Amino acid sequence: MARCSVTAAIGYFIAGVSVGAAGALLLAPKTGEQTRKLIAKKAGEGKDYVTSKGREIRGQAEELVDKGRELVAKQRERLAEVLEAGKEAAKSKLSIV
């Protein structure tokens, strides 16, 4: 197995990047200005998408929080009823003895 030094590997990497960049510039179908406009447009679309998804997720989270509060309130009511029933049972048991 052949081994190359780190400096040779870095040199090959830089050469590959240079050839790739030169090829991309020569074969690019659009001008730099058109490419920048396209990138800006896509970035704006991405921002809008993230914003809308954030609002959607926030709405879902608010719904879940509301449901959680309702469940906690119901459980409190049930617990109060059980405690009251327990007190009544204890009083009746103690009064019989």
Largest sheet: none
Q: In terms of structural class, how would the helical and strand content be classed?
A: mainly alpha
Mean pLDDT: 87
Unreliable sequence segments: none
| Rounded radius of gyration (Å) | 35 Å
What is the helix fraction of residues, given as a range? Answer: over 70%
Give the total of beta strands. Answer: 0
Global geometry: elongated
Q: Secondary-structure element sequence?
A: HH
In DSSP terms, counting alpha (H) and pi (I) runs of 4 or more, how many helices?
2
User: What is the end-to-end distance?
Assistant: 93 Å
* Assembly context of the chains: single chain
> What percentage of the residues does DSSP assign to strands (E)?
under 5%
Protein described:
The chain has 97 residues and is mainly alpha-helical. The protein has a domain at 32-96. Helix content is 90%, strand content 0%. It starts with 5 loop residues before the first helix and ends with a helix.
Summarize the structure.
The protein is an all-alpha fold. It has a domain at 32-96. It has helices at residues 6-27, 32-96.
Give a quick set of tags describing it.
single chain; 97 residues; 90% helix; mainly alpha
List the helices and strands and how they pair.
Blueprint: H1 6-27, H2 32-96
